[in-house]
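Late entry, evening session. Most of the bench is empty. Finally got around to the prediction I had been postponing all week. Sequence below, unchanged from the version circulated by S.P.
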Amino acid sequence: MEEVTGAQIIADALRTQNVEYMFGVVGVPVIEVAMAAQAAGIKYVGMRNEQAACYAASAIGYLTGRPAVCLVVSGPGLIHALGGMANANVNCWPVVVIGGSSDQNQETTGAFQEFPQVEACRLYSKFTARPSSLVAIPAVIEKAVRSSTFGRPGACYVDIPGDMVNARVDKSHVRQVTCCPPPPVSLAPPTEVLKAVTLIKQAQRPLLILGKGAAYGRAESEVCELVEGCGLPFLPMPMGKGVVPDQHPHCVSSARSRALLYADVVVLLGARLNWMLHFGFPPRFNTHVKIIQVDLCAEEMGNNVRPAVALLGDIRSVVTQVLEVFRKDPWSFPADSEWWAGLRHKMAANAEMSKALALAPSALLNYYSAFLHISELLPPDCVIVSEGANTMDIGRTMIPNRLPRHRLDAGTFGTMGVGLGFAIAAAMLERSRSAPRRVVCVEGDSAFGFSGMEVETMCRFKLPVVIIVINNNGIYSGLDADTWAQLANMGDLTTLAPPVTLLPDARYDQMMTAFGGRGFLVRTAEELRLSLQESLRDWLHPSLINVLIDPASDRKQQDFPWLTRSNL
């Protein structure tokens, strides 16, 4: 008789489901689970905070289409991971969280870190379960992995009581479950596809909007063929960037407001009419706009605006259906149309405005001048991770993406603190490639603070991530050192300092050097270029470039506020 422990059963079940990565913070009662996972060939990455661990695991799910695992301890450990679960669920990224919990025979007794974990996780996940016995663990693990990827992807939770981890059972009694297959592919009704094609052909001002669903669905070849074959303008959402290269002549990102306002037919490809697209409402959208919605989730259809055509199905397959109709009856939107002329004029004007801001003479760098130099030096195939307020928004417009799934940011949930976890996940994946690409993490100083200790994780695993902190001494804006000193001399900073301010000229670069990485303090364009070039040459150490910019630096004037609010 061969006996196995609960930890071994969990590890073997995960390996059977082709789980390759586990991120977490271990302690009682899950240390043995991590050790068993390593013995089974799963890569375990110990993080400094469960929230960052869950962000990293979810990023693996988005980048590969297969979930990674976030392993956490009971009670507070799981609660820390809830933010990552919620972020994954809202972003529709697959991830499986495994949490240790109190021993079963101690429930309701006030056990160590006792908490209603299964109930709590139901708010943040698609599937939540506690195996009824050791022999049931593989079936529960398989269902968690399957549920995380089938339909609309999301987070799943498996609860493991502490007394299950080291309990033993005859291996022959364990219910073996094979690896779940890839998600089934569904097609849109052909009649609806024909309606969509007809509507596109009738449009005077068509627009494609590419969401991260198109990137997750690996639809880049098909979408590119649609754009080029039909001559259509497209607007990528932040993580839809790179599905078609940003430098493509049909990309109208720099005329975003005009494109949304005047388009009469909008094709949503894996994008949702939520706050990021101003709900599809006027005045940001044309009152009479017709929406063609492509999504794999039936419940998403008609949210906020009822679509003229709803194409329910796998995005890659549905776009292929549309292409098949156009191949039989070729059509292209006129390149010399009034619509294209207006978009190009607005794009050129905005490009000139950004260039003027970047080249404006100043003793201090601003967002635009810093990003001008950064964009000139970054490798074209690098993975860009970005978070922050102005840092993320301005960087999105100035740092192009040429490849799909090469941009990770705050996403649909607008979550700050995701950056370093995402970067660690991306760097782990790149390490496994025969020709790894650089991972560059561009952070606002406030955003960096949420998970800054993960620089130790980068140093520990020798992940050559390049972190660029755009440091303006605050959230949105800050104060210079002299003004801060004057405030401090006037009295209590808790009543005098603006709530958005952070410590001026904070030495984030020294955090990296403290753990053995490379740190650079930058004040000028020349220093920025030299430090970035040196960091990109170093494949052995992570680097942090602390870029001090004008605390008063801001975005260029916008036609509309970035956040659409209710008038109530």
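Two things to note before I forget:
The longest helix spans residues 338-359.
The chain has a mean pLDDT of 95.
Will write this up properly tomorrow.
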